[in-house]
């Protein structure tokens, strides 16, 4: 038997190497590419006057998602963002307390992303759309450019039971809180007063709480008339950075006439700082936060101190944190009307309210 020549052996090795390379390439082409698993979020059912918009849900993660709904109470589609505790899916027998967060104007549900403390492993956080200038009220006028605008009814009679029906909540006032900042601070205190059967805890941050103040009424008017320049002129915002408040609506659209001479009864009835309304908070945990280092915060500080003094006279327990220039709250806070102060304020409040949830029967 003759041995293969060196040239033959060379060709054989080359052929084997080529075949091996081809097999490797074919294997790589046939392998399925690795994909991250799609977020798994709860399935919601329509109800309580809310209808989900097909394709309107966005899953940011397993514990952070946004629904889009329609309702006859407020014109147009509106979003509801939800943060679940990290252990929600792993513990299917557990029920959780809920905190509602009301954004400011002209904010959106995505503002909550600027508050890390709201992503708590001890509670569910729900962020309903409040409109660019909804003011968390059922408007006097329903025929403006914005159409139907019953924000209070949407939130309290639809969103709250919708959440309780679709998530594993603890649906009692001892395990439900409402919080908000700026426009949402006023809304939070008002909602706690309007429905003490729903909310056992409230936190109002930098809210225009006292509707008897001319500055607060002027702010509402500026949003109705879409005059962001007026708001910027009395704020710490850089020139040209203020967003608009949406279409112009009549100055009486939300609460009716703001002038006592023309009958301001709706303003007075809604006023979160009125002693009559504050008296409804006798069994509610109340926390107020405010700075005092720009023109807006000087007004929210004045309103917050008015509320505290009235609560004290009524014998109702409360906690006011006036952090002034911000130094006592957090190194990043400068006492202005901004998330640099609101985020650490929530970081102070959330552990306190979750401890109250845990202590409740």
Q: Give the C-alpha Rg.
A: 27 Å
- The portion of residues forming beta strands comes to 15-25%
Mean pLDDT value: 89
Helical segment tally?
A: 9
How many β-strand runs?
Answer: 10
What class do helices, strands and sheet pairing give? alpha/beta
Element pattern in H and E: HEEEEEEHEHEHHHHEHEH
What does this structure look like?
The protein has 361 residues and is an alpha/beta fold. Helices cover 34% and strands 16% of the residues. The chain has nine helices and ten strands. Strands 1, 2, 3, 4, 5, 6, 7, 8, 9 and 10 form a ten-stranded mixed sheet that branches. Strand 7, helix 3 (183-194) and strand 8 form a beta-alpha-beta unit. The model is unreliable at 1-13, 15-33 and 234-239 (pLDDT under 50).
Task: Please describe the topology of this protein.
Elements: H1 6-30, E1 51-52, E2 58-61, E3 64-71, E4 74-83, E5 98-102, E6 124-128, H2 151-166, E7 176-181, H3 183-194, E8 201-205, H4 214-224, H5 228-233, H6 265-270, H7 275-278, E9 285-291, H8 295-314, E10 319-324, H9 339-359
Parallel strand pairs: 5-6, 5-7, 7-8, 8-9, 9-10
Antiparallel strand pairs: 1-3, 2-3, 3-4, 4-6
Task: Please supply descriptive tags for the structure shown above.
about 350 residues; alpha/beta; ten-stranded mixed β-sheet; about 35% helix; globular; disordered N terminus
Brief write-up:
With 361 residues, the protein is an alpha/beta fold. Helix content is 34%, strand content 16%.
């Amino acid at each position: 038997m003759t041995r293969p020549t060196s040239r033959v052996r060379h060709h054989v090795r080359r052929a084997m190497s080529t075949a091996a390379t081809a097999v490797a390439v074919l294997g790589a082409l046939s392998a399925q590419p690795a994909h991250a698993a799609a977020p798994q979020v709860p399935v919601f059912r329509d109800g309580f006057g809310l209808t989900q918009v097909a394709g309107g849900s966005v899953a940011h993660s397993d514990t952070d998602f946004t629904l889009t709904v329609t309702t006859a109470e407020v014109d147009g589609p509106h979003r509801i963002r939800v943060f679940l505790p990290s252990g929600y899916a792993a513990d299917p027998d557990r029920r959780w307390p809920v905190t509602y967060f009301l954004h400011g104007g002209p904010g959106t549900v995505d503002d909550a992303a600027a508050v890390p403390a709201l992503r708590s492993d001890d509670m569910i956080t729900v962020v309903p759309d409040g409109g660019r200038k909804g003011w968390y009220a059922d408007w006097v006028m329903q025929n403006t450019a914005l159409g139907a605008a019953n924000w209070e009814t949407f939130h309290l009679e639809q969103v709250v039971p919708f959440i309780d029906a679709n998530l594993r909540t603890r649906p009692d006032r001892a395990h439900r809180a409402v919080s908000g900042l700026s426009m949402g601070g006023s809304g939070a205190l008002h909602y706690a007063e309007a429905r003490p059967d729903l909310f056992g805890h409230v936190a109002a941050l930098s809210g225009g709480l006292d509707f008897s103040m001319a500055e607060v009424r002027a702010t509402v008017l500026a949003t109705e008339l879409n005059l962001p320049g007026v708001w910027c002129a009395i704020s710490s915002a850089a020139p040209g950075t203020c967003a608009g408040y949406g279409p112009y609506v009549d100055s009486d659209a939300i609460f009716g006439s703001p002038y006592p001479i023309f009958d301001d009864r709706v303003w007075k009835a809604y006023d979160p700082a009125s002693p009559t309304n504050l008296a409804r908070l006798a069994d509610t945990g109340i926390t107020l936060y405010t700075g005092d280092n720009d023109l807006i915060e000087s007004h929210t500080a004045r309103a917050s101190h008015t509320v505290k003094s009235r609560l004290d006279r009524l014998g109702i327990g409360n906690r006011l944190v006036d952090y002034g220039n911000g130094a006592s709250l957090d190194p990043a806070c400068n006492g202005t009307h901004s998330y640099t102060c609101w985020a650490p304020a929530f970081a102070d409040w959330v552990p306190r309210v979750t401890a109250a949830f845990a202590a409740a029967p």
